[in-house]
């Protein structure tokens, strides 16, 4: 989960839960553009139809984390939906030099488009730029390269808004329960990472705006083991707790285990990322977990759809612009018992 985070992601889409089936209905719509809307590009109706054959190279870190495993799984599944797409995927690795070598192999194979989720954005920047210089368009997925010269389009999640939406949901619930001065805890990810810092900042900013503050806080390591250990420490130090935000549903398996071991269920909990396990718990309404804030690996499906369109020289069908945007930030929707069925299709195994 290490990454260099993009500071300005100006292009927001309306749902992180873009399913494994498509980038947007916009990209694959079968409906013809309205006759009286000259701004609509003419390729809208053709995008879902098979087009020019496209070979897409794909490179990502090792699938040693539920979210990361879902990234590769979603990419492969999406590529299979298009008869004209050939996916040339490398074996996932957390060795920076090996990933660079794998991408260079894809460049030498002259794939049409590259989709790269770098283990380390800074370290993979040069090879991304090498691909662009060779005329191969690059979709930079989530962990951003150091310069836009290394990619044609960036698509990824919004860490700051994850925190904001988690904070807003908790604040609303506290006000609904008439809790004037709630004790709100936080189980963060690895504190040295920009993504963790952004999530925590968004959480703090949202609570501050609502007149609340962040209480006891610990940092885990995006693993169930670290989540259980750090949550146990937090619960021991906080005799009273009204709400808790856990940044990551994979480490959330351990967080919930610690809560159950301590028999502490008299508070509400919000998760992060959107695992299938978390969604099932939310749906059952039997645990403190009442919501999770999406950071969906379905972005990999969208990246493959984008790569296909770029390889075929198409734009996003319902957009007036003729070209695929340079930046796409998915939205961190809040999944609750009321809407969980809508988002189950993008839940991943934790």
Automatic annotation (TrEMBL):
Gene3D superfamilies: 3.40.50.2300
PANTHER family reported in the protein's UniProt record: D-ALLOSE-BINDING PERIPLASMIC PROTEIN-RELATED
Family of this protein: Belongs to the bacterial solute-binding protein 2 family.
Major localization listed first in the record, in broad terms: other
Gene Ontology MF terms in the entry: carbohydrate binding
SUPFAM superfamilies found in the cross-reference section: Periplasmic binding protein-like I
Protein name: Sugar ABC transporter substrate-binding protein
């Amino acid at each position: 989960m290490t990454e260099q985070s993009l500071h300005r992601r100006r292009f927001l889409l309306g749902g992180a839960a873009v399913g494994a089936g498509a980038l947007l209905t916009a990209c694959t719509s079968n409906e013809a553009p309205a006759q009286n809307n000259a701004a609509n590009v003419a390729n809208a109706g053709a995008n879902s139809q098979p087009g020019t054959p496209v070979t897409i190279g794909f490179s990502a870190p090792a699938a040693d984390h539920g979210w990361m495993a879902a990234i590769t799984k979603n990419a492969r599944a999406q590529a299979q939906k298009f008869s004209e797409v050939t996916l040339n995927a490398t074996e996932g690795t957390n060795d920076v030099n090996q990933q660079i070598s794998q991408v260079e192999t894809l460049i030498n194979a002259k794939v049409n488009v590259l989709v790269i989720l770098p283990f380390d954005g800074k370290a993979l920047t040069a090879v991304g730029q090498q691909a662009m210089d060779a005329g191969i368009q690059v979709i930079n997925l989530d962990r951003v390269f150091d310069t836009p010269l290394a990619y044609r389009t960036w698509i990824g999640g919004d860490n700051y808004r994850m925190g904001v939406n988690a904070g807003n949901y908790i604040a609303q619930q506290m006000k609904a329960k008439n809790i004037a001065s709630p004790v709100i805890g936080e189980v963060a990810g690895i504190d040295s990472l920009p993504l963790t810092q952004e999530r925590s900042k968004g959480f703090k900013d949202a609570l501050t705006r609502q007149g609340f503050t962040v209480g006891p806080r610990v940092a885990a390591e995006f693993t169930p083991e670290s989540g259980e250990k750090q949550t146990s420490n937090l619960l021991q130090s906080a005799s009273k707790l009204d709400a808790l935000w856990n940044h990551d549903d994979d480490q959330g398996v351990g967080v919930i285990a610690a809560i159950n071991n301590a028999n502490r269920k008299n508070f509400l909990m919000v998760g992060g990322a959107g695992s299938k396990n978390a969604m099932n718990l939310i749906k059952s309404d039997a645990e403190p977990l009442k919501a999770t804030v999406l950071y969906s690996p379905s972005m990999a499906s969208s990246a493959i759809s984008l790569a296909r369109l770029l390889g075929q020289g198409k734009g996003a069908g319902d957009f007036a612009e003729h070209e695929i945007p340079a930046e796409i930030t998915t939205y961190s929707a809040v999944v609750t018992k009321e809407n969980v069925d809508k988002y189950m299709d993008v839940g991943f195994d934790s």
